Amino acid sequence: MIEFPKHVKIVEVSPRDGLQNEKQTIDLSTKLELINRLVDSGINNIEVTGFVSPKWVPQLADSTLLCQQLTQHKRVNYSALVPNEKGMQLALKNNIKEVAVFTAASESFTQKNINCSIEESLARFKPVIALAHQNSIKVRGYVSCVLGCPYEGEIDVNQVATVTEKLFEMGCYEVSLGDTIGSGTPIKAQAMLKTCMNKVPIDILALHFHNTYGQALANIYACLQLGATIIDASVAGLGGCPYAKGASGNVSTEDVIYMLNGMSIETGINLDKLIDTGQWISQQLYKNNNSQVGNTH
Ligand code: HMG
Ligand code: MG
Question: Does the pTM exceed 0.85?
Fold first, then answer.
């Protein structure tokens, strides 16, 4: 009989992954209200923004202002993406207690997304991680394209495991496995996870599944069977990477919580409040798109 975990950690990525791909500028006040509503729903881990180049991701150009206005709570861990030392310095200035470095298992995607090779990206992370640890900041790592690449197609799972192991050895306390374009299916997801589990402990691995072909929940269920206990998700299924054309949103947090509740797996999250939050942000984005599109005519 399969033993499922009793508790799962949810990492809510909607303020960053969910909004980074939105074409119309979203007000800072809307972003802050989204974060406050997520906190009120019982979410403890929220990736709020990225200290990335505003030329590359204009939607996150307000990262400093956003971090300055976050309401702090003892139980809540706010994190931000950081691609290089410049980003790390900004995270430090803004009192962020957890950062996430990000690379991929695909050379082409890494070039398109962060303008360097995988090896160069890892070299860039060394001083970032050192600086973070000197300042007692936790570092998470992302490996993108773990189940397929928008430029290279199939990705070798051994390459995924190798990059994962490197990030872990470099000091990432958690490594998130990103199915960036949502091309994975459950048996392939299990094979990928098993290969990574041969190199690093399962309890440091997070599942970050986009839902392009409706497979994310099935992939998560398959990986829970292998002992995974950390899931990245995005309220209302928002999300997508500007450098992975056609990739749709992340798995929706509401769907994940509904499934976990049905399996008696605890998350500490209030599903009703989360659903309200999902409906609220969807309405805000709808209004925002219509008003800004309207203004241009
Ligand atoms: P670059 O152009 O090679 O960088 O970009 P550079 O070092 O040559 O600097 C160029 C300019 O950017 C300079 O400004 C720098 O100061 C500035 P200028 O002199 O021209 O005015 N700059 C910065 N500004 C603010 N913050 C910084 C920063 N660094 C340089 N940190 C770089 C390289 C990595 C910066 C760029 O490629 C970048 O920002 N990429 C980020 C792309 C991104 O955020 N993608 C989406 C997130 S990843 C994702 O979605 C996948 C994930 O969800 C998992 C999954 O689903 O698989 C995580
Ligand atoms: Mg993502």
Answer: yes
